Structures are given as structure tokens and as C-alpha cells.
Amino acid sequence: MERQVREALAEALAAALPEASATGIVPEIEVPREKGHGDYATGVAMLLAKPLRRPPRAVAEPLAAALRRRADLFAGVEIAGPGFINFFIADAFWYRVIPEIHQLGAAYGNSDLGAGQKIQVEFVSANPTGPLHVGHGRGAILGDAVARLMRAAGFRVETEYLLNDVGNQMAMLGRS
User: Fold this and answer.
1) Which of 28, 59, 61, 118 has the most beta carbons within 10 angstroms of its beta carbon?
2) How far is it, in rounded angstroms, from Cα 151 to Cα 169?
3) What pairing do the DSSP bridges indicate for beta strands 74-80 and 84-89?
4) Please, what is the end-to-end C-alpha distance for the chain in angstroms?
């Protein structure tokens, strides 16, 4: 989804403000904190205002107009405040994703970001001679979740559950 929004923004920028390409500014998008501000937003008009020698809203207006022509992707495009552009994704676009989710099943959302890079996630570190507590359970759950997320992002993950089973503590446990 984010990729499609970035592509639409880059295309609209090239069509509506071709002179912006000379600035070297790359438009960024973000997910707004407040849902009422759209599914995504960009502040690129404010970044381009100075190099284009125009007020931010004067930069945002032709860009927003070009984005509104993408009714297949956007249900709405609004200019807010000094020049933020808020995007609302069209329901029809969300619905097109459903067959892809169904086809990919549990693999939906996986990526190759990690490019097979090997990492190790160590977690828990339970002491066999001491009492177990909620923190041990929480650490196990979080460690496992981090490892699963890293795998889904394309990393080769090894996990290690640390167990302190050597040394003086174990000798004392054996003697007891």
C-alpha cells in the first residue's frame, strides 16, 4: 500500500511540478497520528516551498489536484494547515488486496528487507535456582515475537534461550 502511495506521489509531483525534480528533494509519506488526517500524509509541499520560491499551499494545490485524479487509489486528498497533504485510500483499493491476502495466507506481509542477513536473538535467561516470575514469561513471548518478525522481514534468524545451568549456582543446586 505504502509503495503505491509513494509511486502516485512521485508521478503527481513530476506531472504537476516538474521543476521540483531539480531540487533533489525526495517526497516522504507518513501515517498521521490522528485518523481524521488521512491514511497517509506528506509535508513535501513545505520542503519544496523555499527552493521553488512559492508559499507551501501554492505548491500543495497543483500536487493535490494531480493526486485527486487517482480515484482508483484515493477517496480523498486534502490540503491541511500550512501545506500538509492528507491522503484517504479508496475502499475499492483496499478490496483489491483481499485476494492477495487470501492467496499468500500467512506469508502476506513478508518482505526481503533482511536479504538473508544472519542475526541471533537471545532471550529469557531463566535462573534454574531462582523463582520464575511473570518477567520470564514476558521475555519469552517478546523474544519469540521479535524472532518471528525478523524472519518475516527476510532475516536468517537463530534464537537462543539462555539457561544459566553451569557454575556455582548449579553446584549449589546439586549439593542441595
Assistant:
1) 59
2) 35
3) antiparallel
4) 60
Q: Cell for 30?
A: 507518513
What three-state secondary structure class fits 81? coil
Q: What are phi and psi of 15, to 5 degrees?
A: -80, -45
By CB atoms closer than 10 A (0-12, 13-18, 19+), residue 59 is buried
The Cα 58–Cα 83 span in angstroms is: 8
- State yes or no: pLDDT of 123 exceeds 90: no
Neighbours of 3 (CB within 10 A): 7
Q: What is the pLDDT of residues 51-109, one digit of tens each?
A: 999 999 999 999 999 999 999 999 999 999 999 999 999 999 989 889 999 999 999 98
Does residue 153 sit in helix, strand or coil?
coil
Query: What string of DSSP letters covers 90-149?
Result: -HHHHHHHHHHHHHHGGGTT---TTTT-EEEEEEEEE-TTS---HHHHHHHHHHHHHHHH
Q: Cell 503505491 belongs to which residue?
A: 4
Q: What are the residues facing 87 on neighbouring strands?
A: 40, 77
